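Bug #77: duplicate submission created two jobs. Keeping one. Sequence:
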Amino acid sequence: MRRILVVEDDALIAMELEERLADMGYAVLGPAHTIAEAEALIASDTPDAALLDANVAGQTSVGIGAVLAERGVPVAFCTGYDAVKNLPPSLEKALVLTKPLTDAELRAGIEKLLS
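Kept job's structure:
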């Protein structure tokens, strides 16, 4: 089963994403509600892909994304904004999914990450 890291500070959105991903046949690593939780999760485990809220409790998730990209993990930023700022070269082509996501958008995004 493919494992997706979810980093999302809004507990309801995180729970909903976890349920939707499980319904699509994926296992969820997390969800992490803070950058520190995400760092702890990836210190001991490497997911198949990651969905990162761009702004996690006022902190950017770009650093986590960069660490994952260096490990070859495909990353998508889930955000209410139309772009994610200050991306390093390793993340310039990262997928950006605009919240709220429909099931079709979520499924397509995950499939693109894992292809």
